[in-house]
């Protein structure tokens, strides 16, 4: 049986940090030690910031984004084209697209994908809210930006079926060769998708 080298408070900090994606037990120990060594510069301010986030973070009732206001900052930004909605699986996808800065549109976060094997159906996702936004009018394009997985494809087809007959253009993200990618290193599925989605030069 291993001997304890720290008090229960530090052990609890390490255990909680180990639950953060990307941090395993070893990384969590290193992170905890770094925070403790920089107690005044890091640990105190981090503790305050986490307490504030816990008290103030909300889920946007319109799009499903996380923010400290509802509706969120994205939904209330007048500089965005709110007639275009980018549909994403998770908030992390929204943040990734925002970092890319390719399109100044509105978003809708589904909260996952349809997965009958895992018991995730349409009522478990924010699909009804999306349909309500589109049927309310004023939306000219819906960009379905879900992952290129079986569950993502299923979700995209389900959403498209639910919006059949409505006056809205539905598009998908292109799949294929990444910028800087070499053909020799790509899998067959990616190459097939790239060939199907080829464009004129």
UniProtKB/TrEMBL annotation:
GO annotation (BP), single: DNA repair
Key words of the record:
DNA damage, DNA recombination, DNA repair, Metal-binding, Zinc, Zinc-finger
What Pfam families does the annotation carry? RecR_C, RecR_HhH, RecR_ZnF, Toprim_4
Q: Which CDD domains match?
A: TOPRIM_recR
Q: Which PANTHER family match?
A: RECOMBINATION PROTEIN RECR
Q: Which family does it belong to?
A: Belongs to the RecR family.
Q: What is this protein's function per UniProt?
A: May play a role in DNA repair. It seems to be involved in an RecBC-independent recombinational process of DNA repair. It may act with RecF and RecO.
Q: What is this protein called?
A: Recombination protein RecR
Species this protein is from: Rhizobium altiplani
Task: Please state the gene responsible for encoding this protein.
Answer: recR
